[in-house]
Amino acid sequence: MTVVRVFLSQAREAGINPGATLATALDAELRHKAARKWKEENMESLDTLNRFHYEHSCFSDDCRTF
User: Fold this and answer.
1) Of 11, 23, 31, 47, which is the most buried if we count CB atoms within 10 A?
2) CA gap 10, 4 in Å, rounded
3) How much of the chain is in helix, strand and coil states, percent to nearest 5?
């Protein structure tokens, strides 16, 4: 019996829906990879914004009442 068949058998015995579990895991991993890619693609802009904020503070600092 292959490893995959063993996992599927154990999942079914435990009442786990393998298709739904796989879909959920794949969705989470794809979102994670997309977020990492977006961050890498926008790192220069994020660094520029962070430097500006460090040098000039937040745009709304003068408007805050707290």
Assistant:
1) 11
2) 10
3) 75, 0, 25
18: burial class by Cβ within 10 Å (0-12, 13-18, 19+)? middle
Angle made by CA atoms 62, 45, 61, in degrees to the nearest 5 = 5
pLDDT at 28 over 80: yes
pTM: 0.64
Q: What is the CA radius of gyration of the chain?
A: 23
Angle at 28 between CA 3 and CA 24, to 5 degrees: 55
Cβ atoms of 18 and 8 closer than 8 Å: yes
